[in-house]
C-alpha cells in the first residue's frame, strides 16, 4: 500500500499527514469542506475565534454522520424485513 505525506490546512494551521494514496483525495476534499464550513460559521454567526468555528464544524459533522448512520440502519432493517417476507412467501409456495 502506497503511503503519501500530505499537508492539510485547516483554520490557518497546517496538519501533515501520512495517508494511504487511495485516501488522499478524500482527505483533501474533507479539508476543503471544513474550511468552507468555518467561513460559513464566521460569516453567519458571532464566532469569537477559530476554535469556536472548529467546535461548530465538529458538531455539525458529527450530527450529519449520526443521521447518516441511523438512516443506513433503517434501510438495512427494512431490506432485511422485506427479504424475510419474500422468503416466507417462497416457503409457502413450496408447500
Helices and strands in order:
Layout: E1 3-10, E2 13-20, H1 24-44, H2 50-94
Antiparallel strand pairs: 1-2
Keywords: Cell cycle, Cell division
Protein name: Cell division ZapA family protein
Pfam families: ZapA
Distance between the termini: 53 Å
Along the chain, the helix and strand elements come as EEHH
Structural domains: how many: 1
> Total number of helical segments?
2
Strand order of the largest sheet: 1-2
The overall average pLDDT, rounded, is 95
Please report the total strand number as a whole number: 2
> What structural class do you assign from the helix and strand content?
alpha+beta
Query: What percent of the residues sit in helical stretches (DSSP H or I)?
Result: 55-70%
Gyration radius from CA atoms, angstroms: 22 Å
Strand residues, percent: 15-25%
The biggest sheet amounts to: 2 strands, antiparallel
- Globally, the shape reads elongated
- Uncertain runs are none
Entry summary:
Helix content is 69%, strand content 17%. It has 95 residues and is an alpha+beta fold.
